[in-house]
Amino acid sequence: MTNQGQAEPQTGSSRPHAISISVFFPCYNEEDNVGTTVAKAREVLDRLNADYELIIVDDGSSDDTARIADTIATEDPAVKVIHHPTNLGYGVALQSGIRAAHKNLVFYTDGDGQFDFAEMPPLLDLMRHYDIVSCYRLDRQDSIVRRFNGWCWTKLVCLMFGLKIRDIDCAFKLYKREVFDNMELCSTGALIAAEILTRAVRKGCTITQTGVHHFPRTAGRQTGADLRVILRAFRELIKLRKKISSAK
């Protein structure tokens, strides 16, 4: 039975010693953030003695992100980089990360450093009972306009697809790898998170939610409020609604 409710992270020692996890970071012009974001993830995963891979998805950055990512990968065999020749959109970046992930669990967060990777380990215990942990931002550190727009977008998407998700676009999500088996994704923009959750629910996957802290961006520029990004999301929303409806 699908559970889209809220859960508190659990603790315990029943988790296997070796955690198999793919972690990827969609990045667009994050030259000042990608290095510290990846380093923090590596530090946490090493402490867990995890079997892991780190994947940087450079979505056609025009700054020094690509070079920095390649340098990190050269120095650490656990890191690999996917380069898009041009900026293809957030949805394509997530699709690239998902396709490149080969471990038992798949986690992603943005390369902008607005989340603390140290809050990922408590999610692992929840995977004993659920297929997906979809987090929501505590004290979201964005402008009041972005927070209002995000609230409206989440409500609209949940209404259209019958979801009960508190923060649809929170970029702090953990999945079992098999969630993506035979899942055909078509969203290239901001709708991608909603599409994944919608298709997962229709497959019978179980979802729980928990809060994670959100921190102010210290470098770089947000692109989610760009008018082109918003318009693309609404176009994809309409197309996806038609596609999901026709598949019933």
Structure, briefly:
This protein is 37% helix and 19% strand. By secondary structure, the protein is α/β, with parallel strands linked by helices.
Using brief descriptors, characterize the structure shown:
globular; Spore Coat Polysaccharide Biosynthesis Protein SpsA, Chain A; alpha/beta; 248 residues
What features would you describe in this structure?
The protein is an alpha/beta fold and 248 residues long. The chain has a single domain (20-246), classed as Spore Coat Polysaccharide Biosynthesis Protein SpsA, Chain A, CATH 3.90.550. Helix content is 37%, strand content 19%. The chain has seven helices and seven strands; from the N terminus they run βαβαβαβαβαβαβα. A seven-stranded mixed sheet has the order 3-2-1-4-6-5-7, with helices on both faces. Helix 2 (65-75) links the parallel strand 2 (51-59) and strand 3. The longest helix is centred in the C-terminal third of the chain and has 20 residues, at 227-246. The protein is globular, with a radius of gyration of 17 Å.
Describe how the helices and strands are arranged.
Layout: E1 20-27, H1 34-47, E2 51-59, H2 65-75, E3 79-84, H3 90-100, E4 105-109, H4 121-126, E5 132-138, H5 144-161, E6 172-176, H6 192-202, E7 207-213, H7 227-246
Parallel strand pairs: 1-2, 1-4, 2-3, 5-7
Antiparallel strand pairs: 4-6, 5-6
The ordered H/E elements are: EHEHEHEHEHEHEH
**What is the distance, rounded to the nearest whole angstrom, between the alpha carbons of the first and last residues?**
19 Å
CATH topology: Spore Coat Polysaccharide Biosynthesis Protein SpsA, Chain A
Major β-sheet profile: 7 strands, mixed
Strand proportion, as a percent range, falls in 15-25%
Q: Count of DSSP E strands?
A: 7
Anisotropy-based shape: globular
Number of domains: 1
Q: Approximately how much helix is present in the residues?
A: 25-40%
The secondary-structure class comes to: alpha/beta
The CATH architecture assignment turns out to be: Alpha-Beta Complex
Low-confidence stretches: 8-15
**Spatial strand arrangement across the major sheet:** 3-2-1-4-6-5-7
Number of helices, where a helix is a run of at least 4 consecutive DSSP H or I residues = 7
Fourth CATH level, the homologous superfamily: Spore Coat Polysaccharide Biosynthesis Protein SpsA, Chain A
CATH class, named Alpha Beta
Name the average pLDDT: 88
Query: What is the rounded Rg?
Result: 17 Å
